[in-house]
User: Fold this.
Amino acid sequence: MVQVKKTLLTEMKDIEKVADLIGEKGDKKLKIGKNLIKVLDSKGNLKRYKVVNYSGDHSQVQKDMQDETDIKNILEKYGRTGILPVVANPGMYDDFSDVPDYQEAQNQIRKADEAFAALPSKIREKFENDPAKMIQYLNDESNIEESIKLGLRERKIVQEEIIQKVEVINQADNQAQ
Assistant:
């Protein structure tokens, strides 16, 4: 075995967890860096050595879900019941083929921001300097007339269609020829 400084050597029982050596009250038994841990069985005999790299930071892992997410517990429950756990959020399936890629979406946002910045300051103030609020305003059908007055839209010119009546005269004569 490789020579290790005794200051790095810590003992723990086989039923203990490394988290127990760190402690939640600040009574840390591990030192920052690599720690060599003697793992003892229930009789106090050496079972194995374990190396733990401890950074000193508190873990961001939610410990309250530890037993529910442990694969051993999931498989044990599956062995008893024959049912796998149900996922609360099964995901979303949809057709996203017309959605632009990330870079194209960023370019569209940049262009929208530049166009908004080019507007007069009075108009930008009306929307609290937020392009998203202006887009929401423009999407509202009740704001069409006011947005035309502000110069944000152009009035659509509706061309009237001229319907001509066409009659076929002497249809019988044309068929005889």
